[in-house]
Design a protein that fits this description.
rod-shaped; 3 helices; mainly alpha; Lipoprotein
Length: 93
């Protein structure tokens, strides 16, 4: 019985360590609301979240510029039309 005591102790310690480790990231939150990332899987998720947020920001700016262009065209404002077309060419892919 004492022969297996070290092995049993190690297994118990490993189980205890595993039980106290935090989640890699806050799975129940949207990427915009996540604030904690832990370990390698957390770092990977953080990169994915940052890529998503940057793409979303560009998409939002593109949509805003298109709306502003439509408003400028309806008002006949040529300087805003030019500016919005420039913004669209930069932001929209």
């Amino acid at each position: 019985m004492f022969k297996y005591l070290p092995i049993i102790s190690i297994v118990c310690l490993l189980q205890a360590c595993k039980a106290t480790q935090p989640e890699p990231f806050q799975k129940d939150r949207a990427p915009e609301d996540r604030t904690e990332y832990n370990g390698l899987r957390g770092m990977v998720q953080q990169q994915k979240d940052q890529n998503y947020l940057m793409s979303k920001e560009l998409s939002d700016k593109c949509n805003e510029a298109k709306i502003d262009l439509a408003i400028a065209e309806s008002e006949g404002n040529s300087s805003e039309i030019k500016e919005n077309k420039k913004t669209i060419s930069k932001m929209c892919i």
